[in-house]
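User: Show me an example of a complex going from sequences to structure tokens.

Assistant: Sure. Here are the input components:
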Amino acid sequence: MIILLDTLLVTLILTGFLLLGSSRLGASIRISALQGIMTGLLPLALEHGDLFSYVSLLGVAVIGLKGYVFPRLLFSALRESDTSREVQPFVGYMASLFFGILFLMGSFWLDTRLNLPVHSSSDLLVPVAFSLMSCGLFLIVARRTAMSQVIGYLVLENGIYCFGLAVVSGMPLLLELGVLMDIFVAVFVMGIAIYHINREFDHIDADRLSALKG
Amino acid sequence: MSLLLLPLIIFFAGALLQMVFGRRVAVVRVAGPAITVAGALAGLIPVIRAFGGKSVTASLPWSMPFGSFSVEMDGLSALFALPILVICALAAVYGSEYLKSFEGKKNLAGFWFFFNVLAGSMLLVVTARNAILFLLAWEVMSLSSFFLVIFESEQEHARRAGWTYLVATHIGTAFLLVLFCMLGAQAGTLDFSGFSAAGMAPKFLSAAFLLAVIGFGTKAGFMPMHVWLPEAHPAAPSHVSAVMSGVMIKTGIYGLLRVLTHLGTPPAWWGWVLVAIGAASGILGIVFALSQHDIKRLLAYSSVENVGIITAGIGIGMLGMSYGNDAMMLLGFAGALLHVLNHSIFKSLLFLGAGSVLHAAATREIDRLGGLMKRTPFTGAAFLAGSVAICGLPPLNGFLGEFMIYLGSFKALTGSAAACPAAGVVVIAALALIGGLAAVCFTKAFGMIFLGEPRSDAAAHAHECGPAMRIPMLVLAALCVAVGLAGPFIPKLLIPAVQVLAGRQMTDGNFFAPTERLLTNISLFATGVLALSALLLVLRTRLLRNKPVSESVTWDCGYAAPTARMQYTASSYADPVVRLFKLFLQTRRKFVSPKGLFPEKSSFSSATPDFYRERMYRPAFNATEKFLTRFQWLQHGRLNLYILCIMVTLIVILVWKLR
């Protein structure tokens, strides 16, 4: 199981890097979907004993939402907006990757300092969680289109989810379902907002929205 | 289910259900007011029980941290809940017709939602027994009334009034928040029953008192904090003004009294503070009212005046309490509470009357009205009753409350246990001055609106309102008379509330016995006056029977062509008094005098903006804005950078903590 777990975790880090380095929005959505599926598989790879049925239910829900529903929503928003790639990010792709590595290092350092009561067989889980959170935040800050920012938000949530898995033994199912519900609504709203932003302004550059300021 | 929860459920659930299911115009017209009336009727049951000496309590499980949903209707709550329920119900009936002209143009379902929520939240404010619940109800009350004020939000003045009100009420709430945090931290609980003065430092108690005066005073309209009243009352629809001015501002008085019951025996200077605020609000309020040209603005300033009278009464009561002069305490508190009741009756009557004038002649400018007594006799009679009552003239109810405060003040001067004669003198002088000025103010208002000749076409073609607007005015006018005649029964109504304020049982009827005799005499005298008037009226009709009665123009010294413009105007009538107080009023006059033998053009106009608004709040807010503008570069509108700021802050904090 350790091998499976570590494989999943490493994939998560790599998908994070991929997102940092990709300019095509369609590809980004696919990668984020893959990342969502990986996070959905995570609880199955952790040993939970008697809670297995609950946890597997949760995993299925996560995979269904993050691997299928969100990507579909985002793709339809993307089609409406006629945008296919991030043209001028605030921070370039190479620089973004460099930051990603810095975040990973910082996450490991943070893990050693925090001494969290971790209920997991892998030492990687907490650093991966931190690095996903910072990657997500970085994507929100450093990208121009609303689509990339939504993806950043999803990555951030994946990080929080991993952290929850690591710290709370046998994640309270209801709580996690609540979080899922939250982001479902959030992504839904963002999708609609992107559609409307595009219809009103012919672009989905969030930074140009400051023209609305009174 | 407890009796007390039923009215609350009717108000809140009714408002919600009507908003969701009853949005059709025909449904809203009936359902909105019907919910208010039903809630009010249900609410009267616990009120009557509380007057009978039995408090009604209820509590529900509530998962709010430090909160508990505990409500209680005791004597003090009942005295404030009674006008809330009655006035809201009457205003709702009035509103069902008043709002007809807005049907199809405005979201009336939304209006009635906020109206019923306002009624329910006011009831909750006066019954809540937990600080969290109280503040929640307080905020719901402020917000729902804000939405009612901006009902005509397409007009700029309504939006501005709404903002002024919103800012003022939140500044007040900020003080209340600090107050309850202080009391709660000291008591270890936020339930009112846990608050007690025992073991608290005097400095701490005084700070709590001052916070309460500022926080609740903002809602009640104490003098430097009153600025939102003359803005918000004219902007709101008239029956909302009636509710806000008649009962909502009284929740400020209630809050102050309720907090005082938990602060123990007050030191004398607390009483002095309230006496000073009361005298200042009373005198300046009525002087500002005198100089207004807008009828609803005039009434709003008059509310400041009446709140001043109430506050002075409370001040006298507290001085009596701190000097151990029971008679003074009882009369001061009882007078203040009675005036709360009376003011809610006659001020809502006057606002409903003003609404009916506005409905009839489509203007609130006193100088554009006139002669309405002939065109709208019913409204005129109702307004007259309200005016007589608010001036504190004997046969009607306004006299009784002021009379009791006078009596309390005289107790400060005379008797064996004389205490604090100076305060007595201040209150007596202030009340006398207020009484005189109020008479000038309301003869101006009534005379200029209802007597003489119409000063504009709109006033000339005014029409009387329909039955749904008349009945509430009739009921209120009848209440003015009834309370005036009910002198002997009044102490029974007030004793439960005064006992709560005094913090002990008043089994000994000694204090009220002489007052009761006096009140009985007053009522007998009032009955006599009314009977005599009725007799004279009958006599007059009898004498005039079978005799020709003709109408002609006013006596005009033989001048051939008198016009309505030759009448006294409202500002000329008030001018001598306004000049007397020009130090405070700062009235701006623009006068172009006629020149030459055949003068062509001349004009005169005057305006009295609020002194405090112009000299105190505007500079202060401008300075704040100027200071904060320096930070506007932070508000660049780039979402990325906002999030970056948050992220950097989080990382810095994390690293700093772990370093």
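The lines above are the inputs; the final block is the predicted structure for all two components together. Chain A has a mean pLDDT of 80.
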